[in-house]
Specification:
Elements lengths: L15 E5 L6 H9 L3 E3 L8 E4 L3 H9 L3 E4 L12 E5 L2 E5 L6 H14 L4 H10 L1 H7 L3 H12 L16 H6 L6 E7 L9 H9 L2 E4 L5 H4 L7 E4 L11 E7 L1
Parallel strand pairs: 1-2, 1-3, 3-4, 7-10, 8-9, 8-10
Antiparallel strand pairs: 5-6
C-alpha cells in the first residue's frame, strides 16, 4: 500500500519560511514556526523554499509556480506538505498526521499519547545516544546490536519506553536482555494486519530477513522494517543461523 505522504523532520533553525495571512488561521502556524527556530519572511523572499498560506489561494498559486512547497491551511487539496500534531519529548518528536483529512483526529491522538509517554522519554534517548560507542564495542555486528536494543525496549523489557527510566544504566539494561534470533514461520489466517498477534508483529518489526509467499499482501509486509532484506519464496528457505529470519505465508 503506497504512502500518501513521506514523513520528514526538517531543521528550520535560521531558515527562511514564508507565512502569508493573519488572524486565527495564521497565528498558530506562526507560533509553531517560531518554536522551530524558523525565520519568518514575506511572500517575496527569494531564499524561502517552504511557505504556509492562510486564506489566500492566489498566493498558493504564485508560490507553487516559483517552486516553493506550500501548506495551505485547511485546504489539503492545495498542500504540498501538511503539518502534524506533535508530541515533544526532546529530542524525541512524535508526529501524527492524517494528510490534512482530520486535524481533530490527529489532536485527539496527540492528547492520548501525551498521557501515555513519560516525561523522561527524552532522557532515555540521550542515554542511548551516549552509550552508542560502548554498544558498538559490545555488539560489533549491527544485527546483534539492533536485536539487543530492541529486546530491552520491547513491551515489558528492561528499557520499556512507556516506563520511567530516569537514571537507568542503559548499557547494563541492554546487556541483561536476551536478543531474539533464529527462524520463525508465520502462517496467517487473515490478510488484515490488525489480526497479527503481538508476537507476530514483534517478529516482523525486528526481523533481519523476511521471506514470503507471493500471496502475502503488502499491508502485512509493510509491518517489517524498511531495511530488512526481503525475498519471495514458494517454499521455506534454509535458515543460515545468522540473525532473525521470518517466513510469512497465508493459511
Amino acid at each position: 500500500m503506497p504512502l500518501h505522504s513521506l514523513p520528514l523532520f526538517v531543521r528550520l533553525t535560521d531558515r527562511a519560511v514564508i507565512l502569508v495571512g493573519e488572524g486565527e488561521a495564521a497565528e498558530p502556524k506562526r507560533r509553531l514556526l517560531e518554536r522551530a527556530g524558523a525565520r519568518i519572511v514575506g511572500e517575496d523572499d527569494p531564499q524561502a523554499r517552504l511557505a504556509i498560506v492562510a486564506d489566500d489561494e492566489a498566493a498558493v498559486a504564485r508560490l507553487r509556480a516559483r517552486g516553493v512547497l506550500v501548506n495551505a491551511v485547511d485546504r489539503p487539496d492545495l498542500c504540498d506538505f501538511t503539518l502534524p500534531a506533535i508530541v515533544d519529548r526532546d529530542p524525541v518528536l512524535i508526529a501524527i498526521g492524517t494528510g490534512g483529512v482530520s486535524a481533530g483526529l490527529a489532536a485527539a491522538l496527540r492528547q492520548r499519547l501525551e498521557a501515555i509517554l513519560p516525561a523522561s522519554l527524552g532522557t532515555l534517548a540521550q542515554h542511548l545516544y551516549a552509550a552508542r560507542d560502548a554498544l558498538r564495542a559490545r555488539y560489533p555486528a549491527s544485527g546483534e546490536r539492533r536485536r539487543a536494543i530492541g529486546a530491552a525496549l520491547a513491551n515489558g523489557g528492561a528499557l520499556d519506553p512507556l516506563v520511567d527510566h530516569h537514571g537507568a544504566d542503559v548499557l547494563a539494561a541492554i546487556a541483561a536482555g536476551r536478543p531474539a534470533g533464529g527462524f520463525h514461520a508465520l502462517v496467517l489466517a487473515s490478510p488484515d494486519p490488525d489480526d497479527l498477534t503481538i508476537r507476530q508483529a514483534r517478529w516482523l518489526a525486528t526481523a533481519d530477513r523476511v521471506t514470503h509467499r507471493p500471496d502475502v499482501p503488502a499491508a502485512i509486509l509493510d509491518r517489517a522494517r524498511a531495511d530488512a532484506a526481503r525475498e519471495r519464496h514458494p517454499a521455506p528457505p534454509a535458515y543460515d543461523g545468522n540473525g532473525l529470519h521470518v517466513d510469512v505465508s497465508m493459511a
